[in-house]
Amino acid sequence: MNVEYFSEGLECLMYCGRKLSPEQRILIENSLIVLLQENRFSGMYFWGRITATKNDYYIAFGYTNDCLKDRKYFYSLDQYQWQLLPFVQSPKIFQATVLAPEPFVGDPSLLTYVKLDPTFNIVANQVVSISRPEVIKLKEEERLAAIVFIISEECAICPRGALYKMVDGRVMPNQMFRGLNDLQIDNLSYYQLYRLPRNDLKTNLSKRSDYNYAIDFLDTIDGVIPLSQAFSLNMQSNERIAVIKSCVWLGMTFFHKLNSRKHGFLYLGDGRKNFDLLFMY
Length: 281
Known about the structure:
A hairpin with a 5-residue loop joins strand 10 and strand 11. About 20% of the residues lie in helices and about 30% in strands. It is globular, with a radius of gyration of 20 Å. The chain is built from five helices and 16 strands. It has about 280 residues and is α+β, with helices and mostly antiparallel strands. The strands form five sheets. An eight-stranded mixed sheet has the order 4-3-2-1-16-15-14-13, with helices on both faces. A two-stranded antiparallel ribbon has the order 5-8. Strands 6-7 form a two-stranded antiparallel sheet. The two termini are about 30 Å apart.
């Protein structure tokens, strides 16, 4: 959620029950403006809130030169003071984060122990040995950073044309973007994942007859597995606002106003993946 139109964006998400209290809105907006100025970011966004048993985590991110490669994430327990989230690289931390059964507590220094799944050694299509499950010591601050990264990778959304790839490779918000029209706004192929593309450029360009190298480099959400089940799109407020919800990470919601550059996503949830999705249809 861009701080430039933070209050208006929250108003758009109120149609689907995503909202903050007036006190929280004022504190978050003002503190993020200060954070933007202190770090000299080119853009500042409120990512969302992860519910914990004692203190909830509020997440924000900003960028300087590249809005995909140059993002820095912050968390806050009081919506006023922001701490930099650590950068997690270990695959075992990500695996333990997804498997962690306990909810978040709200203590960044808290340590939990997560048992990973056993690994199988297969030779000639036969299991020859099974390794003992490894136990990972997981710090809640690292778990928080990992879950924010995973959710952002899987279901953070932007409309087609909102991001523009410069000739030097940097990705920036498109200042010429004026929003999707009434023929595009209810089509999932016009929404892209707000992250570095995983598909080859030729693959993404081949999906469109009206392709544009500068804006069609990102992966579209209509190709996210499970197909046709990962996202649900609804029109709100007299068909003027498109609202897309993630069915994999319940609590992630995106909005876009018709014929307007205003759009954004917000996560309000407990940080747990919906493993029951395939059984819900």
